[in-house]
Each structure stands twice: as C-alpha cells, then as structure tokens.
Write a structure and sequence with these properties.
Helices cover 74% and strands 0% of the residues. The protein has 242 residues and is mostly helical.
C-alpha cells in the first residue's frame, strides 16, 4: 500500500461532493448523446452535410465540450476558487519536467508491453488505420492532433483526476482511489478493448500514474502535459507508420 500520511494531503484536495461528481458525468454525457447520436441523424436526414471524418471530429468535440461545460456549471461556478476548484493550480516546475519524462518513458513502456505480448505489429497497423482517414487534408490532421492531444488531455484530466479521483480520495486511501479511477478511465475508453489485454493494461497503468502525479503535485497541469504529450507522440508514431 502507498503511504497515505502526507501532511495536509486531503486538506489540499478540493471538497468536491458526490452529487457534483455525478452531475458532471451525467450532464456531460449529453454531449456524447448529441455528438454520436444526434449529429449523425441530422447528417443522415440531410439537414447537415458533413464528411464522415469531419463528423467524427465534431462528435468528439461535442462530447468533450459537454463535459467541460458540465464541470464549469457544477464545480467551478458554485465555488469562489475559479478553475482551482477543478485542480487547475500552479505547481513547481520540477513536476512539469517529471511529466515530460513520464510521457516519453510510457511510450517506451507501452512499446515493450505490446512487444512482450506479441501484438506490437498489430497495434501499429490498427493505429495507422485509425489515423489514415485524417490524412486527407491538413485541416483534418491538425484537428485530430488538437482534439486527441491538448483537448482530450485537458478534459479527461479534469474529469478523471480533478473531479473523480478527488472525490474518491476524500473517502479512500491513495491506492484504492487510484485503482478505481483508473478502472473507470479504462472502461470509458471502449476502443482499448479492441487491443486486448495489452491495451487494457497500458491504459490502466497510465491512468494510475496520472492519478499519482496529481496526488504528489496537487495540480492537474503536469498530468495534462504528460497526457497530451503521450497522445501526441503516439499519434505521431502511427502517422509515421502509416
């Protein structure tokens, strides 16, 4: 078990309630419903003309946007802390250096994990295939990198570390809170199940590392940097392979 006796550790956590956490995830899910069900229906009925790849980008953007709006309404607005209520606080520069190191390290660890399990080539082929449709235009490719990099990192770190992990941490020790938040983070990414055990382990272990980075830094910014850098490096690798 990890040491859970750091001075003022829980006091430094923003007091996000269970109701706020549930409200953010439920209301934020409306963005998913609109993006993945409502928008395609408008396209299929001829009300909107969108190319399929652009449609997917917009759907992802609506999903992330819905959660960010919900986080603002239910966490930021009711408090007088501003964005600090979500964990977006300043921290020491050393944590940003650590975040960059962890992102690069995890690319190496992921490669080894997939290689040991004998699915590295399959993972590269799958990833390159996912990126390929966005290579039609530079605009689509830039949109993909922006969405999968900084936007995904910001949104997911706010949701799964800033809100969910914070709430769990108020009631549980570091180990259980990190494991539970990582489990929920993983099942929120159903595409990893296509990759089998290697992809599930990769995503889960990365989520645990990000939770621990938030735990020690008391800020989401290092985790956002690590998450965005990891996603960008991975996409770049898929693009190169493609």
């Amino acid at each position: 078990m990890l040491n859970d006796t750091l001075p003022n550790n829980q006091a430094a956590m923003t007091a996000i309630s269970g109701r706020q956490t549930l409200a953010v995830f439920l209301v934020g899910s409306l963005g998913i419903a609109i993006g993945y069900f409502g928008l395609p229906r408008l396209v299929s009925n001829g009300f909107v003309q969108l190319e399929s790849t652009l449609l997917h980008l917009i759907a992802d953007g609506l999903a992330y946007g819905g959660f960010l709006v919900a986080a603002w309404i239910f966490v930021v607005k009711p408090r007088d802390q501003g964005l600090k209520a979500l964990g977006l606080k300043g921290c020491e520069v050393s944590f940003f250096v650590l975040a960059g190191f962890l992102a690069v390290l995890w690319i190496i660890v992921s490669s080894l994990l997939y290689s040991i399990m004998g699915v590295w080539e399959a993972a590269l082929i799958y990833g390159a295939g996912e990126v390929a449709p966005y290579q039609k235009t530079y605009a689509l490719l830039v949109g993909l990198f922006l969405l999968a990099g900084p936007i995904a990192a910001l949104t997911e770190e706010i949701l799964f570390r800033g809100i969910l992990y914070t709430w769990l941490r108020r009631h549980l020790n570091v180990t259980i809170a990190a494991l539970l938040s990582a489990f929920l983070f993983t099942i929120a990414h159903p595409s990893v199940f296509v990759g089998g055990v290697a992809a599930i382990l990769d995503t889960s272990l990365l989520a645990i590392l990000l939770a621990l980075l938030f735990e020690v830094s008391r800020s989401l910014w290092p985790g956002i940097l690590a998450h965005a850098l990891y996603n960008t490096l991975l996409l770049s690798h898929y693009l190169y392979q493609g």
